[in-house]
Amino acid sequence: MWNVCRAIALAEGANVSSSAPDRANNPGDLSKGDEHGQPVTGYTTLPDGEVLIAFANKEAGWNALYTKIAHIVSGASSTYSPQMSWRQIAQKYAGNAAAWLNNVTAVLGVGPDDVFSNYFSGGGAQPPPAALP
Known about the structure:
Elements: H1 2-12, H2 20-23, E1 40-45, E2 51-55, H3 58-74, H4 86-93, H5 97-108
Antiparallel strand pairs: 1-2
């Protein structure tokens, strides 16, 4: 799951110094409601109306993103299904779905119409990211 988290963080620009995800310790560019019990320092309303979470630290942001992905994989998400394609995930997840989809699928080596849950079959546990490349 950490590979998916890393791919999303790259697609969201978390590796760009001073980007919104970097400043907010929010590598997944998560919106209000995706805190998943992690400590936050506040919220920022963006021009598109999205309410971005400012996590207390990078670890909290990474853990919230991991939990969001874990909920999708397990079927516990009320927004996403593990049987959705990457394209369908992108359409719900990102404002610029086409760019997000291209970036995430390129990093993971999957097709845009591949089923999300298929990525996780046979994969072992990965360590949390220390930093983005």
